[in-house]
Structure formats: structure tokens, C-alpha cells
Amino acid sequence: MPPIHPLSRRGFLGASGALAAAAAFTGSAPAAAQTQTPPPAAIAALPVLSGLARPFTNAERLARINRAQQLMAAAKIDAIVLANSTTSSVYFADLRLNGGERLWALVIPSKARPFLVCPAFEEGRARELLQAGPFGEDAGVLVWQEDESPFVALGKGLADRGLTSATVGLDENMKFVFAEGIRAANPHLNLVSASPITAGCRMIKDAHEIECLRLACRATLLVYRAVAQSLQPGMSTADVHSLIAAAYKQVGFEGEASLNIDEFTALPHGSRQQQTLRDGSILMLDDGCEVEGYTSDITRTFVLGKATDKMKSVFDLVHRAQSAAIKTARPGVPTASVDATARKIIVDGGYGPGYTYFSHRLGHGIGMDMHEWPYFVKNNMYGYDLNPRLQAGNLLSDEPGIYIRGEFGIRLEDDLLITEGGSELLTPQSPSLEDPFGNME
């Protein structure tokens, strides 16, 4: 399935180079200039994994909606509004509402019949989309003409369901112009954030979601290993991006990765500058792929050849911090405490204080968005539950790092599932800088 979000915050750095360089392996160059160079042996040997992915069903989506309605009742929210293309509209209803500046809004009341607001000329398409999703013919469609207010139409839909002075949750990713339009046209509504509902559902992964994330993580690590086995001194970042594109094509999933080399690894999200591998270079590969809309996020830092003693010492410290987070993370523990545990190891190891060398939070929630709730950091994001405690089914990145400007950086990132009794990584930890994939099956 094509990604439902734009390029990640890291992968965009090398995307333009990847598009050009990938032609050598994917045949995307103009026909007259095409050269069908076979991929390296390690990439050609990758298994095709796409057939292992199971699509989500409408029955599963209806269960999510039922859960959302339970959370609405507990939070005293009468309805939630998901406007235009947000991930939550896909999560609940498999709806990609790409309306641009025109409002499309899915409204899910806690008790009444759901409805969709859309432009009048789009009604046929809207009903077709609804028919294929979990609502079938059970959802209403309210339309607005080009010279009418869609926000008034939305308010009428709520009023028709007895929600004239209701508390309505707005998706936190909704455009401000839509949120303000709803407020101005409906001063009788009490507008709040829908995050207690959207986050409350999405940050607890069920077995099928975890299955997809495990598969995405497996595919990503296999791609990283095959790419690492194909590297040679003298390759540019563009060359490596072409290897990554070929590898993800082989496994059958949409994926990408940023690559940074030597002193650029000391920038947590890298640089747009083209870089070249040499013998002894330290490299950082980051990002992931999507499986049925669920995304992995993995970083491997390793050396092309022999690591220096300083590199090995820093790697050991980062590895210990990642391991400490795994041991600390379990249901009921504040997310901030996991960050604090990992950060203390790095600071006590001489790379402090605070964010001096470990310059970002320990991690972020992962699911249909590469960054979502909750977060391993003091004072969580999005203004929703600033001090959350971990719950079974949470899945977050565990990604401590040390970044020494002008020299190198080391980050180890794996995806951490909170289980009933503790936590587990979905991928094996990197054992060393010189053999980062040595413990893979």
C-alpha cells in the first residue's frame, strides 16, 4: 500500500538522490538510457515478504470504533471529527479524505449514526468510499455546495442527532482553518481535543497490528544487512540509496532510509550533503518501511572496516543505555522514567549533562505514523497526558545516542513492545559496530 504520510523527517534528506540513483536497479530511467544492472548478490537473495502481510478487515475497524465510543463515554465527549486526510480516518474507517482546501469530515458520535460531510459534487465518490468501509450504507452523507459553509453543514449533522450543545473532539492533526471554521459556525459546541479517543485507541496495539510491525521490522533489518554487505569504499550516499531502493523492491514493501557518514553521523537527523564512503567510515542507516500502513523505525550504526577504540567505547555506552531502557519499561512505569534511566547511563559515562551529547528524547510511539503517542520523555507531546504511564500494547522506539560534533555519532534504535510483564524488542540488538547483524537469524 502506498504510504499515507509524506516522507519521514529523516528520509527526505536523501530522497532526491535515491530517486535518481535507483534507476540503475529499478529501470525508472528513460527507455533510451536504461541500464538493467543486476543488484548485488546480497540484495538479490532477499526473500519476498509482502505475501506475509494480512490486510485489516472491516470487522476489525468496527471493533476500533466500538472502543472509541467507549472512550468517548468515559471522557464525556459526544462525538469526534476527523477532517480531510488524517491517519485516524484511515485507522477507524479506511478513509483517505484528500479534499485539499475543501472540507471532508468523518464524524463519529458516541451513540448516534456516523456521517460524512463532503462537497456536493463529490457525493457519489463519498458513498462509494463509505460502501467499501466498515460503515457500509449505515453512515449518512451531508453535502455542501461551493457557495455554502461546510462548517454549518457539520453542525446541522450533529444537531440532527441531538447534539446541539455537545462536547466535540477535533482530531489534533486537523488544519487550523477547519477547526476555526467549525468553532465560528457552531459557537454552541464545546470543542476539545479528540486525542483521548484517537490516542487512546491507537497507542494500544492489538495482535494484528503487532504482527504487521514485527514484519516491517524484520524487513527493514534484512534490507539493512543486505545493503551493508553490498557496500564498498568510494560509494556515495546516492549509490547507497539506490541499493536501499532495490532492496525494498525485492522484499516487496514501500521503504526508505537515510544514510550519514563519518562526521555527519554526529547530526541526529543528518545532512543533505552528498557523502562518500571510505575504508574505516562510520555509517548511520535510519528509517523503515510500511506493512499494511504500519511503519518500522530502526537505526543501525556500524563501521566499514575497523572501529576505533573511542567508537567502541561510545557504542558500548549507547548499547548499555538501550538495554537499561528495555529492563525499565513495563506497564505502569512513567514514560519519563525510561528516558531518565537511559540518559543517566550516558551522562554518568561522561557524556553530559542532560541533552549535551544525547540531544533528543529516548523514543517515540510507533504505529500508522512513524511518530505517535506516547513518548519516552519528560513532558509528553501534543498536550495530551503530559505524564503518561506505559500500558501493555504500547510500542515505542528505544533509540539512545551520543553525538560528538565534528567527529561521529552513534545511535541504536529498535522498536520496543510493552508486554503484560515487561517489554521486548521486535528486532535483536546490534552486537557491535563491526558486526551489527551478527545475531540475526
Describe this structure in words.
The protein has 441 residues and is α+β, with helices and mostly antiparallel strands. The protein is 35% helix and 17% strand. It has a 6-stranded mixed sheet, sandwiched between helices. A 3-stranded antiparallel sheet has the order 7-8-11. The protein starts with 11 loop residues before the first helix and ends in a 16-residue tail after the last strand.
Unreliable runs:
1-33
Q: What count of helical segments does DSSP give?
A: 13
Percentage beta strand: 15-25%
| Total number of beta strands | 18
Give the strand order, joined by hyphens, for the main sheet: 4-3-2-1-5-6
Helix proportion range: 25-40%
Largest pleated sheet: 6 strands, mixed
Radius of gyration: 23 Å
Overall spatial form? globular
In angstroms, what separates the terminal alpha carbons?
27 Å
Structural class: alpha+beta
**pLDDT average, as an integer?**
91
Features:
disordered N terminus, globular, 6-stranded mixed sheet, alpha+beta, 441 residues, 13 helices
